[in-house]
Amino acid sequence: MTAYDLARGLHILAVIAWMAGLLFLPRLYAYDAEQAAKPEPLRGEMQALLRTWQTRLLRIIVNPAMILAWGFGLWLIHLDTVARGAAFLLEPWMLTKLAGVLLLSGWHGFLAGQRRKIAAGASRYSSRFWRMTNEVPFLLAIVMVLSVTTEWRF
Ligand code: HEM
């Protein structure tokens, strides 16, 4: 077993957890938005429960998984650079992967900000918005995974 094999396996595991959390969080936001139509006290009770789950999912899974995915990803960049030089960082497949990573991290930041807004009762997004944007991380994942597995170039 090489350090590269270990880093790659740990990177993939962290990415799985990060993706799972990013796919589930907007569902909780959609259910939260749907409570607006319900009468009290049902609305308040359901929203309190959903907001506890939102906070826990972000703090226990999504944030740590992102840090680990980045950490193992940067370790892979280091190992790759030692093994084959830094030129791969400018190849189209790697630039595509890095662009996807930045977009995914930005989406993560947006969702984290929305959790605070929802908790303050200040989110302006509907259940429909959360359902429609739910697949954003998966679409980005398709591009990122195929970029690294194919290492495509012109
Ligand atoms: C968070 C920042 C990330 C960094 C810095 C990063 C960087 C890297 C690097 C340098 C490699 C090794 C590439 C190679 O030598 O072939 C790699 C492998 C991989 N990455 Fe990432 N990555 C990140 C996030 C992600 C995300 C979000 C996904 C999926 C959604 C992902 C999926 C993969 C997969 C599947 C591999 C293994 C590819 C293979 O072994 O052929 N990575 N990553």
SSE blueprint and pairings:
Layout lengths: L2 H32 L7 H43 L7 H28 L7 H7 L2 H15 L4
Helix pairs in contact: 1-2, 1-3, 1-4, 2-3, 3-5
Bound molecules: protoporphyrin IX containing FE.
**Strand residue percentage:** under 5%
Rg, Cα atoms, Å: 18 Å
Q: What is the number of helical segments per DSSP (H or I, 4+ residues)?
A: 5
The major pleated sheet works out as: none
Bound molecules: protoporphyrin IX containing FE
* End-to-end separation: 33 Å
How many E-type strands? 0
Poorly predicted parts: none
What spatial form do the alpha-carbon principal axes imply? Answer: elongated
Mean pLDDT: 97
Quickly count the domains.
1
The ordered string of helix (H) and strand (E) elements is HHHHH
The helix/strand class is mainly alpha
Helix content: over 70%
Protein model, in words:
By secondary structure, the chain is mostly helical. The chain has one domain (3-150). The chain contains five helices and no strands. The longest helix is centred in the middle third of the chain and has 43 residues, at 42-84. The mean pLDDT is 97. Protoporphyrin IX containing FE (HEM) is lined by residues 8, 11-12, 15, 19, 69-70, 73-74, 76-77, 80, 101, 104, 141, 144-145, 148-149.
